[in-house]
Amino acid sequence: xxxxxxxxxxxxxxxxxxxxxxxxxxxxxxxxxxxxxxxxxxxxxxxxxxxxxxxxxxxxxxxxxxxxxxxxxxxxxxxxxxxxxxxxxxxxxxxxxxxxxxxxxxxxxxxxxxxxxxxxxxxxxxxxxxx
Length: 131
Prior knowledge:
The protein is α+β, with helices and mostly antiparallel strands and 131 residues long. It has helices at 25-42, 47-52, 123-130, and strands at residues 6-11, 55-66, 75-85, 88-97, 102-115, 118-119. Strands 1, 2, 3, 4, 5 and 6 form a six-stranded antiparallel β-sheet that branches. The longest helix has 18 residues, at 25-42. It starts with 5 loop residues before the first strand and ends with a helix. The model has no long low-confidence stretch (mean pLDDT 93).
């Protein structure tokens, strides 16, 4: 496993699985989004508070590669790194099954900030990601 700046452990809930008994593909997006939000909170930034001040981080593009399936009641580790590329914040996010650390999903999520309704840079977000 490579190095990550943030890791979050979660557990698959049975209602997240489809008829085949595996996590429905769309739920991996939820796991990754929850990880990004928790990462922001770990840096002292509330996604909700940003929105109240007119700053919205929005997803512009997602690319996901499914490698192995998660199943009900399985613990997993959702990991991320982030870099700034122009006005985009590019998150590389991987999900590993526990305890064997089998890579289940590899994702690349590109986000941008919209400030008061316009695509713009956010000094607060830049400062957080500069670390």
